[in-house]
Known about the structure:
The protein is mainly alpha-helical. It has helices at about 25-35, 35-40, 55-60, 65-105. The two termini are about 40 Å apart. It has one domain (about 25-105).
Amino acid sequence: xxxxxxxxxxxxxxxxxxxxxxxxxxxxxxxxxxxxxxxxxxxxxxxxxxxxxxxxxxxxxxxxxxxxxxxxxxxxxxxxxxxxxxxxxxxxxxxxxxxxxxxxxxxxxxx
Length: 111
């Protein structure tokens, strides 16, 4: 799952959800996706921007009831799969466009 199109890596370790939730990262990442700018404002580092563990711990996070997380996962499962699939399709289409458009404009490919 992506927080945004330009997100490179998101690494975290937390114990927000019960172990019985199969993919706790889905609701957690969905929740964080609404707070990308807030998280980016916490970045520091001269080599590459990162949010330190200490700064990340300062982030106030809602810890929902197990039943609510389960209901969310059940409702959002198919939509999140579809989002992932469509993002993958968009990347493939973008790559195809980037490959073909210069050839089309140069006249290498006739329409």
